[in-house]
Structure formats: structure tokens, C-alpha cells
Amino acid sequence: MTMTIGLAGKPNAGKSTFFKAATMAEVDIANYPFTTIDANRGITYVRTTCPCIEREKRCGNCEDGIRFVPIEIIDVAGLVPDAHQGRGLGNAFLDELSQAQAIIHVIDASGATDIEGNPGDIGSHDPLEDVDFLNREITMWMKGILCRNWERLARKIKAENLKVEEAIANQLMGAGVCEEHVNIAIDQLGKREYIKWEDEDMCQLCEYIRLLSKPVIIAANKLDVAPPENVENLEKLEIIVVPTSAAAELAIRNAASTGAIDYKPGDEDFAIEGSDLSEKQIKGLEKLKNFVVSRKPHGCGVQECINRAVFDQLDLIVVYPVEDEGHWTDKKGRMLPDAYLVKKGSTAHELAYKVHTDIGDRFLYAVDGRTRMRLGDKYELKDGDVIKIVSTAK
After folding, report:
1. GO terms for molecular function, please (predicted)?
2. Pairing state between β 40-49 and 66-75
3. What fold, for 134-205?
4. What are phi and psi of 231, to 5 degrees?
5. Is the Cβ–Cβ distance between 351 and 342 less than 8 Å?
């Protein structure tokens, strides 16, 4: 598992509630700034349809044909303006985010917290003001890393005839930036003569790098109490915005964990099943049920948010490598034991390397588990593919 999603946002926006709902991990949730000091790390899942529904029997690795593929999620310290200069717990926040491939920005859509996360009345703050400052903090953090030794680095690029994109990528490697990100960003900047870059150019370059290396989607949280116009204004933004109620999702998952309801993360409805529930508990569950049903097909939004970060923002698909293309099993006879998240456009040969380096090095061909057709090394994988890799590796 190499996929990591970061949860970011100001204090009291609901990040820790979102994290707990997504992972069912034990974390502190409180109505005061910086409840989270050390980053919480956990495992959450993207939801997809398992190919075994095409067969007579289930694989044993899904729930009624729903496959949950694990990814890591990090809930980092709350962000305040000028975090890149060390305000609040800014440095810790930014350092933790360096490991994330994508960021879910949890915003208090109810407008009941100010720009620094201090509680107020519902509607007292415009959540649109919270959108841009996270992006600015990440951009300025990257700029700070890059400019720290820029003069020395520029001289080294010139003296040693280095590629500027390689040198910058090395400088920003700790922030999760690769050479491809930098190369595209420089093209977008439109200025290859790095010696002539001014401060404004450096800011713009780092903004482009941020967009490529740390794509952000918005979780418009506290949907259950948010003024409708706040949510509508956020949804008009030209980025992915998912209305969410992390508190409702957490309550539902807690109920499911006790057997009171039948619910899988991302379901559009649930059945109340507990036989020893009090009248008060039943009324509470019915209220949650009505909320979920009213939000079809989105539900509480937490699972949708995770799925959209992985499938839409990062453009990934799920594929299933097997040993036996007829039975879709591994050497031990386990059906569809593994599910891999790979970039859309990845090839069968690239999948072989993900399974094992030796298999990639000694790749011969692949076989489509559905059609039994032989596939070449350049075959472009499709979402849900069941693939056998044939190689000379032992």
C-alpha cells in the first residue's frame, strides 16, 4: 500500500471526526484549537465493485460484491494563516502533508468557526475564505524550501550543466515533488531562463508545482447544520467539492459496529436491525436514516470524498493480478486475493513491476482473465481488469 491521502484544514473544521469516521480509529475529538498535535495515521478504504460478482461464488475478499481497497490517511495538525512561517503548529502540519499524494481540505461549511478555527455562531464566517489560504500556505512552504538555498543551487546548475528541473525536484523531494511535476510547472510558467526568475516567478512556479504534486478536493463539512447557501457557494468552485457530514457518518458507523444497523461505508440507505434498541435509539437511527436517504446517492459524503480523491483527482483505477486466469486465483487457490491501485493509462508491464521487480524484469506477456486473450507489454489496463502476468521469474 503506497497511497496516502492527507486531511487538512483549520482547527474545529471536523478533520478528526472525518478521520475517525473514515478509519474507526480512536482519536481525540474536542471543540478547541489543536486537538490534534501529532498526526493521526490510519487505514481507510476506497470502495469499488468486485469482479467476483461476475462469477457464481464470491471471492471472500469483498462484502456482497463491494470491494474495499486499503489506503493510508493522515489527519494532521490544524492549519492557521501564516503556518508556513511557523504560526500555530504550521511546520508540523506542512511536514506531515509532504507524504500525501492528494489532500482533502475539510472546511466548516456551517460558517461557525472563524479563519483560525475559533467557535462562533452558525453563518458568522464565510467558508469561501477558508479555501484559498490552505493552497497559499502549501505554495509558500514549497517556495521557502526552494528559495532557502536558491542562489547556491542556481550557481551549481550553471557550473555543472545540470537540468534545472532535476535540481529543483531534488530540492523539493522531501515535499513529495518529482522531476515530472517540475518540468510541467516550468512549461506552464513559460520562462526557462531560471537566472532571470524573480520572486513573483518563484511563487508562480511553486503554485504550479503544488497543483501537480498536492491536488486538493474540498470536503464541505457539517452539512447537517450548514446554511444551504454556504454549501451552494462552495459547490460553484472550479474544483471537486463534496458536501459531507462527518459527524453523521461517525454515528452511523458506530451503530453498524454494534450490529444495530446493516451498513457498509458509502451505502445510500441502511436497515435498522438491533432487537434490544430503546425507543430513543430507534428515533435517533431513523433520523440518521432519513438524512442518508435524502442525500442519495451521496450519503454522508465521507466515502464519496475518499473515492473522488483517489479515482477522480488522482486518476487511479483498480486491477486484480492473479496466477490462474481461469479461476482468478493465486497459487494457494485464493480467489482475487489482491487489488492494486494504478494510474489510469498504466500498462500490463508496469503492473508486473508493481507485483515484483523480478516479474517486471522477466516479463513475457499478460493474459486477460475474462477473455483469456494474450496481452502485450503495452496493453493499457482498464478499471476492474483481472490480469495474469507471465514471466520467466521463479
Report:
1. ATP hydrolysis activity; GTP binding
2. antiparallel
3. Helicase, Ruva Protein; domain 3 (1.10.8)
4. -65, -45
5. yes
Q: Is it the case that residue 165 has pLDDT exceeding 90?
A: yes
Q: What is the pLDDT of residue 94?
A: 67
* Amino acid sitting at position 323: E
Grid coordinates standing for 159?
557550473
Cα 308 to Cα 315: distance, rounded to the nearest angstrom: 9
**SS3 of 48, please?**
strand
From 152, 128, 7, select the one nearest 78 (Cα to Cα).
7
The answer to whether residue 289 scores a pLDDT higher than 90 is yes
Residues found in the chain: 394
The topology (CATH level 3) of 4-127+216-309 is Rossmann fold (3.40.50)
**Backbone phi and psi for residue 327, each to the nearest 5 degrees, phi listed first:** -100, -5
pLDDT digit string, tens, across residues 176-215 = 899 999 999 999 999 888 888 999 999 999 999 999 999 9
Amino acid found at 179: E
For strands 40-49 and 216-221, give the pairing.
Answer: unpaired
Phi then psi for 104, rounded to 5 degrees?
Answer: -100, 115
Confidence at residue 147, expressed as pLDDT on a 0 to 100 scale: 87
Residue 262 has pLDDT above 80, yes or no: yes
Mean pLDDT of 293-304: 95
Average pLDDT for 309-325:
97
- Nearest partner of 387 among 373, 371, 370, 368, judged by Cα: 368
pLDDT of residue 96: 75
In 3D space, the residue among 43, 109, 104, 110 whose CA is nearest the CA of residue 71 turns out to be 43
CATH superfamily to which 317-391 belongs: Beta-grasp domain (3.10.20.30)
